Amino acid sequence: HPDDQPEIKRKMHNVLHFDTEESAEFRMFHKNGPPYKWAMLRGKRTIIGNEPCVVVVVTEITELKVAEQQQKKLQEQLLQYQKMELIGQLAGGIAHDFNNALAAIIGNTELVLNKLDPANPAVSNIRDIHKLATRSADLTRQLLAFARKQVAMPQVFNLTEAISESLLLHQRLIDDNIKLEWNLCDEPIQVKFDPTQLEQILSNLLINAREAIAGSGCIAVKCGGVQFGMDDVETGAPGLSTGNYAKLSVTDNGSGIEASVLPHIFEPFFTTKEVGKGTGLGLSTVYGIVRQNSGHIECHSEPGKGTTFNIWLPRHQEPHEEMDVLADKPQAELKSKVTIMVVEDEPYILKLVQDILESYDFAVLTAADGDECLHAAETREYQIDLLITDVVLPTMNGIELSQVLQKENPGLKCLFMSAHAPESANGQKKLRDGVDFIQKPFSIDDFIHAIDRVLNSEIEKI
Fold first, then answer.
1. Per the database record, which ranges form the Histidine kinase domain (predicted)?
2. What own/partner pairs with CB < 8 Å and gap ≥ 24 does 391-394 have?
3. What whole-number distance in Å separates Cα of residue 312 and Cα of residue 245?
């Protein structure tokens, strides 16, 4: 190869004139063209007929170079995967702490607004606080999505059909000078996924593609079924197992991404946009959603030519069963003097929940941990109707606490809350599907509706 010739000439000059031993790797042209063959050259000086010359041994090392390149790629992917895992843990912890604080801010501002006369000049300031806290809660939700701790409600559905319907709506996000086209396979591809999270993925990738195109251009979306074999796992996707997958690709012919930037694009708050033009959470949200659903995402980009995002999601193998759609039952009015036990180790959250419930005329008992709750339940003269508990508690977690209480009180209903998603509570026992859960921060209306739903539902054993 012409690029390798200067080094070989230099080294052979050293061998001939300075009696050194040199070696060099180089590429050789193949008669059929690329890919090139790799070879290693070793040179040593000798004397033939009183004339100094160089003896050269050439060994083909193509297979060795390919194996080295694959190993290097895997090591880079593994390091990137581990880095993203660590960043995810950090982001999840930060979001958890912020969500607890935001729950208190949002709840208390709503309580104050409910008590103030609308004409009070302080109302405007308090509404601004509430608005900013709600906006901050949206950011923490995106952080939780990246950390794979977002609350998800998976359903079995045909991915290609859902993408087709979504793209028809997303066309309005795309400028008139950008063509949006899609090629989806005719075969139904069933996945078990949260439709809302699918919308998040498509929205973020389409907006990202749109902003990469200056002037006219094209965005292409493809989806089909693929088989992921052992060779694919070994060469391209840490954490992904063999099996049947749905592959979703979004390609644009925009500006592309520089090689130095590419390793960082999924990191939260990383952005190449101007200050104020983006949060840097779009692609990290997509990454978190895909990983939360046991999938894989990768990006290929070439500056000046465009970018492709490929996503693999596991196909749902079980027969698809249509969910029965039941007419909404009329909700009974909240019963006054229902006795509710609230268990929360954060004092300001505990006080907030107590204030909200008492404003709706509930009888409220409070406890900071499981032991305190059990003691209060044992000394209580009459039954507790509803347990509202954080999932993560000192001494015993909320799930274990509910199980102990339901043994003594089979009629006890439970509502769990957490600043994390139900399946991620810091290694605690997972809440199974169907158990009532509300994520912090929540509005008073959402909280009361959740209580109403639980009180009017059948008892769920945890």
1. 93-317
2. 391/416, 391/417, 391/418, 391/420, 391/422, 391/425, 391/428, 391/431, 392/345, 392/418, 392/420, 392/425, 392/426, 392/428, 393/343, 393/345, 393/369, 394/345, 394/368, 394/369, 394/370
3. 6
Strand 296-302, strand 217-228: pairing: unpaired
What pLDDT, on the 0 to 100 scale, is given for residue 195?
Answer: 84
Instruction: State the average pLDDT over residues 250-257.
Output: 93
Please name every residue paired with 54 in a beta bridge, in sequence order, or none if there are none.
45
Which residues make beta-bridge pairs with 181?
A: 220
- Choose among 385, 426, 445: nearest CA to 409: 385
Residue type, 423: E
Q: How do residues 223-242 score in pLDDT, each as one tens digit?
A: 999 987 665 555 556 566 78
Q: How many residues can be counted in the chain?
A: 462
CA distance 389 to 407: 17
The confidence band for 329, taking pLDDT boundaries of 50, 70 and 90, is very low
Per-residue tokens: 445: 């209306």
Give the pLDDT mean for 51-62: 90
